[in-house]
Amino acid sequence: MNTNWYAVYTKPRWEKKVAENLLKNTFECYCPLNRVLRQWHDRKKFVSEPLFSSYVFVKTEEDRHVQLGRVPGIVNLVYWLRKPAVIKEEEIEAIRNFTGQYTNVQLEKTAVSVDDKVRVIKGPLITQEGNVIAVKSRTVKIALPSLGYIMVAEVEKQNVEIITASGATFVYNS
Q: What does pTM read for this prediction?
């Protein structure tokens, strides 16, 4: 039984409902929620909103993809190169850790570029590897290549080491 994580595209604003429907249909799923402070005219309140609009992650076998199409609210699987896009387990865990440690996470759509490859050596994203998109003061942008998104968090520069082409590593100093 070979299971992988896949992303499904949902109807607009149906992410939480789709996650409930997937659970009812015995699918393992993950709908990352972002804790955001919202202000109304009379009060402020933290609310949980889906981190990725119109996306929910599903861990399933390839032969159950047809059943996904019958789940209310799912439009389609997300495809990459004409095949359902497989999301790495490490990326799902990175999202879980990231949203568990930070509130009001921002997403930026990006075409992933190849820059310095880094590994986080301390903090909630420890052992995660990715490409550096930008480093400004204390902010590091970390790319999740198979999703095409980057998450932004403040990470101390000394908590990142650069991985060279030869496999050698050195701690980022600047």
A: 0.66
Residue 147 to residue 114: CA distance in whole angstroms: 15
For residue 22, the domain's CATH number is 3.30.70.940
Pair (17, 79) in one structural domain: yes
Q: Residue 153 burial (CB < 10 Å; 0-12/13-18/19+)?
A: middle
Q: How many CA atoms lie within 13 A of 86 on its CB side?
A: 10
CA distance 58 to 134: 30
Sequence-distant (≥ 6) Cβ neighbours of residue 48 within 8 angstroms = 33, 34, 35, 36
| 143/131 Cα distance (integer angstroms) | 6
State pLDDT tens for residues 22-71.
999 999 999 999 888 889 999 999 899 999 999 999 999 999 999 999 99
